[in-house]
């Protein structure tokens, strides 16, 4: 337990501040960034603040797992911070590194004005480093040769080979810069790394290292890193820096405060690096072992990492490839240029196999094919990438057989050739005597590597991807996948005071009606309106799924032009997800007209018949005229109550048009209806100008607009629901108030089928429908 004191709000910029706040000011004294990461509430934090107990998860560099803040009753500001028992508990539980995760300094060092800069500068001078400014942008990286097996030898250091991007990181004039080995500026791609480099307590420095994105097991994930590398929007990058953070593992110190350290021995540079870079945080030092390369590779292979790097301990840093650094993989892999593809067979989509080539003595040479290692998404994505760059002839020569380059390329007649501009990494067993890859498996697409860097091992010295290394963070013991459970709360709370219906009644209704409701919710963005205190209490409209929502509930992120950010919607695919959402106090459920995967192609066009001051008999009459019109032009149409005082007419589109086209169709139909019912209906949007006419609203047919889902409950007296109807029921005497959470389940048991559900799958001939509608309008 630790004391936690509630303080006033701070500016966001304060989150990066390290230094001294003068006496007499709020928070006076030394300040460091002790830890950084994500705070994820596991329950509704508003309720937690009110009741004095907050349960949350921390995803930091030091603090991990579940924690609770409990308010001390006799104090307004004091709380207790308590660690929950989970896989992250350790003993002793209150010992953490006290250094900043940005600068590596302690609070005491900041207050005393102590930094490693002076100490390091003296050590650098004593080591005999040359006084010379080094520009990070001009550094050419040192690269490794390849070897087939590990070795045990004095005078060598061994590091993990990482699955990331090689970056040269520099700090000069108080600013940070990140460069790839090809000289591309990546400072804006990884802002969290640049921020940490800037915070290092050094005047200037140049580091060599590897940037990675770690997965949930603490291992580098190249696919996660590629997600970061593909982002271009500043807003997307800023968000990903929190949700998909990168880590920079520095394995060499090349320059410091005006000194060039590259001529020094590697072991000395690493000693200096250890003092310059924090042990934890977004920038951290790499670990290594001495001498025991064979045992190290055995352990690396056992935990599923790709290999190790051997480095000569006394070697200076020299640009280009050298035998002083040696990369050793558990299985041979290499990068190849995609030069073609074969047709798929059977049920396979996309393509059958990729044809590969690499450079030998500056000539592009055929290397073989790879047909395994792909999933459906890869087949689709690669297929669409290659289709626009098809060419007639092979871009490469035949394979090298017995040291002689052949002219004929295998499978030439059955291959579709493409321009040699894309690179992939392939694992293989060996080269055959025919100069082809044996037992090859596709690993990943290499958007970070230019084709001219694909040089066959042993044929030329040429730069290739990263030789860096690092030790991944350990996985906490006994991690158990989260169970699909719901902690139901306040089930006896009255939600409908007049009827005495409770929150429990709401959840039970949604559980009972789910066989008919879920077809409309599945694979579709959902918007909630939450009433935590019932229909007479305060409510709030919520598009974003709460941060504390369990991982087993599906969400989808959709960009919003209005808010200029991604909105993370719930997608309610099953009964348990529906009950969870109802337990949040969500009474009405609003849904998009389109599905995830085809968000711009709606399933239906909706015409909302809104009476306002008009009598309901006019709504009935308008619906009947619209029904006859749709039947006459061959457009399938369905009707449901809104749960209030109006009706929704749903017209099947079958995901065959856009929202704009759907809206136009709705307008044409509305205008056609008005020719007969101008005395009782209108399309005038302004409420005060409608009078007592039924409003034919076709404007809801647009991207991101929602309607209340069929069978959804309304926060109105009586607990009415939006009920699908048979057209024969749409006549005088129809009362929407008759359909409630108490009557709806019995009605559906009696009907046995939903009168509206076919709107989800029907695909009318819209060309024929429009021709008939045009004829109707022209008559």
Mind explaining what this structure looks like?
By secondary structure, this protein is an alpha+beta fold. It has four domains: 2-100, no CATH class; 116-329, D-amino Acid Aminotransferase, Chain A, domain 1 (2-Layer Sandwich); 333-453, OB fold (Dihydrolipoamide Acetyltransferase, E2P), CATH 2.40.50; 494-774, DNA primase, PRIM domain (Alpha-Beta Complex). Helix content is 22%, strand content 29%. The strands form ten sheets. Strands 8, 11, 12, 13, 14, 15 and 16 form a seven-stranded mixed β-sheet that branches. Strands 20, 21, 22, 23, 26 and 29 form a six-stranded antiparallel β-sheet that branches. Strands 32, 33, 34, 35, 36 and 42 form a six-stranded antiparallel β-sheet that branches. Strand 27 and strand 28 form a beta hairpin. Helix 10 crosses helix 11 (575-583) and helix 13 (659-677) packs parallel to helix 15 (766-778). It is globular, with a radius of gyration of 33 Å. The model is unreliable at 460-482 (pLDDT under 50).
Essential attributes:
779 residues, alpha+beta, D-amino Acid Aminotransferase, Chain A, domain 1, OB fold (Dihydrolipoamide Acetyltransferase, E2P), 4 domains, seven-stranded mixed β-sheet, six-stranded antiparallel β-sheet, 15 helices, 43 strands, 22% helix
């Amino acid at each position: 337990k630790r004391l936690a004191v509630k303080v006033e709000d701070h500016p966001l910029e304060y989150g990066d501040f390290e230094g001294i706040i003068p006496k007499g000011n709020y928070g006076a004294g030394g300040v460091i960034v002790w830890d950084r990461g994500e705070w994820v509430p596991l329950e509704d934090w508003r309720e937690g603040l009110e009741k004095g107990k907050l349960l949350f998860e921390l995803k930091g560099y030091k603090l991990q797992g579940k924690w609770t803040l409990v308010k001390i009753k006799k104090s307004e500001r004091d709380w207790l911070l308590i660690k929950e028992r989970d896989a992250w508990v350790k003993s002793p539980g209150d010992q953490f590194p006290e250094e900043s995760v940005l600068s590596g300094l302690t609070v005491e060092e900041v207050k005393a004005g102590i930094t490693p800069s002076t100490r390091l500068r003296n050590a650098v001078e004593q080591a005999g480093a040359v006084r010379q400014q080094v520009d990070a942008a001009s550094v050419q990286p040192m690269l490794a040769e390849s070897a087939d097996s590990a070795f045990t030898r004095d005078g060598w250091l061994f590091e993990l080979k990482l699955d990331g991007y090689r970056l040269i990181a520099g700090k000069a004039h108080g600013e940070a810069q990140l460069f790839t080995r090809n000289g591309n500026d990546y400072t804006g791609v990884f802002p969290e790394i640049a921020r940490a480099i800037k915070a290092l307590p050094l005047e200037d420095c140049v580091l060599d290292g590897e940037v990675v994105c770690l997965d949930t097991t603490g291992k580098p994930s190249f696919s996660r890193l590629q997600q970061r590398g593909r982002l271009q929007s500043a807003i997307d990058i800023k968000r990903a820096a929190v949700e998909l953070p990168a880590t920079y593992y520095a394995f060499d110190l090349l320059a410091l405060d005006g000194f060039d350290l590259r001529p020094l021995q590697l072991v000395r540079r690493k000693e200096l690096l250890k003092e310059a870079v924090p042990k934890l945080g977004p920038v951290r030092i790499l670990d290594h072992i001495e001498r025991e390369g064979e045992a190290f590779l055995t352990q690396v292979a056992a935990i599923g990492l790709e290999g190790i790097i051997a480095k000569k301990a006394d070697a200076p840093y020299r640009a280009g490839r050298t035998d002083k650094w040696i990369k050793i993989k558990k299985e041979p892999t290499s990068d190849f240029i995609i030069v073609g593809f074969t047709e798929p067979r059977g049920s396979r989509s996309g393509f059958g196999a990729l044809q590969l080539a690499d450079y030998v003595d500056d000539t592009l040479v055929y290397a073989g094919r790879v047909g395994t290692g792909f999933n459906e998404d890869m087949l689709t994505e690669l297929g669409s990438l290659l289709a626009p760059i098809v060419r007639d002839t092979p871009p490469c020569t035949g394979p090298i057989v017995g040291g002689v380059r052949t002219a004929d390329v295998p499978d030439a007649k059955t291959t579709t050739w493409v321009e040699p501009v894309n690179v992939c990494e392939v694992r293989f067993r060996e080269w055959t005597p025919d100069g082809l890859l044996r037992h090859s498996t596709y690993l990943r697409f290499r958007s970070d590597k230019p084709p001219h860097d694909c040089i066959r091992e042993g044929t030329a010295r040429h730069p290739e991807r990263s030789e860096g290394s690092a030790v991944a963070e350990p996985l906490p013991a006994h991690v158990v996948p989260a169970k699909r459970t719901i902690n139901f709360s306040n089930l006896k709370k009255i939600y409908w005071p007049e009827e005495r219906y409770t929150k429990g009644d709401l959840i039970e209704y949604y559980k009972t009606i789910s066989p008919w409701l879920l077809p409309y919710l599945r694979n579709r963005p959902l918007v909630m309106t939450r009433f935590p205190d019932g229909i007479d209490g305060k409510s709030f409209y919520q598009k974003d799924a709460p941060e504390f929502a369990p991982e087993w509930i599906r969400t989808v992120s959709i960009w919003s032009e209005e808010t200029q950010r991604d909105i993370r919607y719930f997608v309610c695919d099953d009964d348990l997800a529906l009950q969870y959402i109802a337990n949040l106090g969500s009474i009405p459920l609003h849904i998009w007209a389109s599905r995830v995967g085809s968000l711009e192609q709606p399933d239906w066009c909706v015409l909302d018949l809104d009476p306002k001051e008009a009598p309901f008999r006019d709504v009935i009459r308008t619906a009947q005229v619209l029904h006859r019109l749709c039947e006459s032009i061959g457009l399938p149409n369905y009707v449901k109550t809104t749960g209030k005082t109006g009706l929704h007419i749903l017209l099947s589109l079958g995901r065959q048009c856009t929202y704009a086209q759907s809206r136009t169709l709705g307008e044409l139909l509305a205008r056609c209806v008005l020719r007969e019912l101008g005395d009782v209906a209108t399309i005038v949007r302004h409420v005060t100008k409608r009078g007592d006419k039924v409003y034919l609203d076709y404007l809801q047919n647009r991207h991101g607009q929602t309607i209340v889902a069929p069978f959804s409950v309304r926060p109105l007296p009586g607990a009415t629901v939006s009920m699908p109807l048979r057209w024969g029921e749409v006549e005088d005497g129809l009362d929407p108030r008759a359909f409630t959470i108490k009557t709806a389940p019995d009605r559906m048991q009696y009907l046995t089928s939903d009168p509206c559900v076919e709107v989800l799958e029907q695909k009318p001939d819209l060309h024929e429908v429009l021709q008939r509608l045009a004829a109707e309008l022209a008559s």
